[in-house]
Structure formats: structure tokens, C-alpha cells
């Protein structure tokens, strides 16, 4: 998971990370971006379509001003093995 946070720390304004996690008993897709030192997260239920996980119809958003708070929040969602992609 340390590699994930290295990537998050070094995100450029036009980059993001897509993480497959789990919360409330359901698969979740979490999209993380960073701008001006703040992390923005888009969180959606994940739906399986044609063998791929895609975002559901509803999305919620969260913002974090520091990586410690982001780490605590993501620790409750990220599953092992980690399934994340930089875009």
C-alpha cells in the first residue's frame, strides 16, 4: 500500500488513480485526483459488466487536505490484493 500513497503524493493535475475497493458489503470504485495539495475522491458502487468493473449510477465525493486523513479513509476501503491503476 505504500506504493499507492507514493503515487498519490506525486499526482500531477491531469492524473488520477482508480482503486477497486470494498465498503458497506459492496465493491466500490474510488477515483482519486490531487490539485493544489488537496485530494478529491469520487466514490461509486462498482458494477460488473462484461467481466469489467464499471462505476454505478450514483457517485459521492470527498475531499482531504492531507495524506494522513486520506490514508485513514482509504484503509477502510482498499482490499488486498490492491487493485489500482494510474491514469
Highlighted features:
87 residues, alpha+beta, Nuclear Transport Factor 2, Chain: A, five-stranded antiparallel beta sheet, 2 helices, 5 strands, globular
Provide the fold topology.
Layout: H1 2-9, E1 17-23, E2 26-35, E3 38-49, E4 52-64, H2 67-75, E5 78-86
Antiparallel strand pairs: 1-2, 1-5, 2-3, 3-4
General description of the model:
- The protein is an alpha+beta fold and 87 residues long.
- It has one domain (2-76): Nuclear Transport Factor 2, Chain: A, CATH 3.10.450.
- Helix content is 20%, strand content 59%.
- It is built from two helices and five strands.
- It has helices at 2-9, 67-75; strands at 17-23, 26-35, 38-49, 52-64, 78-86.
- It has a five-stranded antiparallel β-sheet with strand order 4-3-2-1-5.
- β1 (17-23) and β2 (26-35) form a beta hairpin.
- The longest helix has 9 residues, at 67-75.
- The protein starts with a helix and ends with a strand.
Helices and strands: which structural class?
A: alpha+beta
Instruction: Estimate the global geometry from the Cα principal axes.
Output: globular
Radius of gyration: 12 Å
Largest sheet: 5 strands, antiparallel
Strand content: over 45%
* CATH class designation: Alpha Beta
CATH architecture: Roll
Kindly state the number of beta strands: 5
SSE sequence, one letter per element? HEEEEHE
**Cα distance, first to last residue?**
18 Å
Can you tell me the number of structural domains? 1
* Unreliable runs: none
Q: Going across the biggest sheet, name each strand in turn.
A: 4-3-2-1-5
Amino acid at each position: 500500500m505504500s506504493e499507492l500513497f507514493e503515487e498519490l503524493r506525486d499526482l500531477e493535475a491531469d492524473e488520477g488513480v482508480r482503486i477497486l475497493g470494498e465498503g458497506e458489503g459492496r465493491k466500490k470504485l474510488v477515483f482519486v485526483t490531487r490539485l493544489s495539495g488537496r485530494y478529491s475522491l469520487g466514490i461509486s458502487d462498482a458494477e460488473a459488466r462484461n467481466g469489467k468493473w464499471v462505476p454505478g449510477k450514483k457517485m459521492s465525493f470527498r475531499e482531504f487536505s492531507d495524506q494522513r486523513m486520506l490514508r485513514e479513509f482509504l484503509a477502510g476501503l482498499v482490499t488486498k490484493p490492491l487493485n489500482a491503476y494510474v491514469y
